[in-house]
Amino acid sequence: MLPALCATQITSWGIVYYAFPVLNPQITADTGWSTGVTMAAFSIALVISGLAGIRVGRIIDHRGPRTVMTAGSAVGTLSLVVVALAPNLAVFFAGWILAGLAMAATLYHPAFAAVTRWWAPDHVRALTVVTLAGGLASTVFAPLTATLADHLTWRTTYLVLAVILAVVTIPAHAVALKAPWPPAPGTPDDMEGTPRTVVRSRPFLMLAVAFTLSAFAMYAVVVTLVPLVVERGYTTSQAAWALGLGGAGQTLGRTLYAPLARHTGTTARTVALIALGGLTTAAFALTSGPYVLVIALSMVAGMVRGNLTLLQATAVTERWGTQHYGRLSGLLGAPAKTASALAPLAATLIAITMGGYRWLFGLLAATALLAAVIATGTSVRGGRRGS
Q1: Other C-beta atoms lying within 10 Å of the C-beta of residue 93
Q2: Which DSSP letter does residue 290 get?
Q3: Are the beta carbons of 61 and 112 closer than 8 angstroms?
């Protein structure tokens, strides 16, 4: 199951998510649609993914991941075909709406729900393996997509990618995830009442706010790092290397999460990692060089981002157990996914309004530090979970 999930995460992330930024310049050049409009379609897909993830989580809690992830792969394949053949913007948007549903059913959240139930209590190690694989998606599929696009139209490229998605992910999900779904464990002692009670509790609400603010700041940093570095006088190529090596740092950071989790309490770790995200963002705002320092800072920031992904994956389990993981993680992740979807456009507009990317990064740093302060109120009663 674990190798299958690794393969499907690399393929699903690489094709449904990372192929679009590579192909979008061709899409706009060929169709005449504005970049803002095509980006809006992609952002809508991300918002729908967050909202649909709530229902997907509940289904997985009760029935397991096999049916929903297999169906998600099929819908993802269909969505790419619709996008590829879209004669107008209405059909193009419809294709991305389908893609949002596919993301909700195939990307990290359903995979995390499956891993958490099947591998508990050793789920942190399995989660790390899955996220390490997911981190390779852009490394594998961005160059592959670019190579295909050099020889084919963007429409044909998407059709080829749709075939790859179908061949790899549909049978993998259908065959490899057929193991019996373990019964839900008993309600932990520190979980008061039903999932509805948990969702309305102060720790859950504060955690949702903290993750939403942190996600907005984190994704805004990723999409605006290149223009910030260029604004400082470096070339676009140098800026791209800074962003790419930050991705390498993200992969490295994920390997460090398991030992970090063993030696820190849940709330303390949450506050520290979100705060570190804010501090690295502030350092970007204050640092103009030399270039080697910019690279080093990008790698450190990437390491923090890698840990934040696993922090969110384990947040529910460490506070409220695994019984309702899918439902609770879906509800917890929906606003953060929405914030992530809005971050690229919002960050660009804020930078224009504030007169530069340096000031934007200062504001994003303050946002992340505010999230860290809010995270201090996310402890629940009982044992190490609330420490």
Answers
A1: 20
A2: -
A3: no
DSSP output for 112-131: HHHHHHHHTTSHHHHHHHHH
CB-based contacts of 175, cutoff 8 Å, min separation 6: 4
- Residues constituting the chain: 387
Q: Which two tokens mark 296?
A: 């080093």
3-class secondary-structure state, position 206: helix
Report the Cα 171 to chain-centroid distance in Å.
24
Task: Tell me which amino acid residue 210 is.
Answer: A
DSSP conformation class of 181:
P
The answer for residues whose C-beta is within 8 angstroms of residue 154's C-beta and 6 or more apart is: 23, 26, 27, 30, 84
299, 302, 307, 309 alpha-carbon torsion, rounded to 10°: -160
Tokens representing 386 are 């609330």
Distance CA 16, CA 24 (A): 13
C-beta neighbour count of 309 within 10 angstroms: 20
Residue with tokens 């992740």: 333
- C-alpha–C-alpha distance, residues 204 and 313, integer Å: 14
C-beta separation of 243 from 295 below 8 A: no
pLDDT tens by residue, 278-327: 999 999 989 887 999 988 988 899 889 888 888 888 888 888 877 778 77
* C-alpha dihedral sign at 1, 6, 55, 161: negative
CB 344 within 8 A of CB 221: no
CB 100 within 8 A of CB 45: yes
Q: What sign does the dihedral 18-287-217-317 (CA atoms) show? A: positive
Q: Are 249 and 332 in contact (CB under 8 A)?
A: no
**Interval 85-122: pLDDT, tens:** 999 999 999 999 999 999 999 988 888 888 888 887 77
Tokens of 162: 């749709």
- Cα 294 to chain centroid, rounded: 24
Say if residues 342 and 199 touch (Cβ distance below 8 Å): no
By the 8 A CB rule, do 297 and 163 touch?
A: no
CB 135 within 8 A of CB 6: no
189: its two tokens:
């002692």
Over residues 183-209, the pLDDT tens digits come to 766 554 444 456 778 888 888 899 999
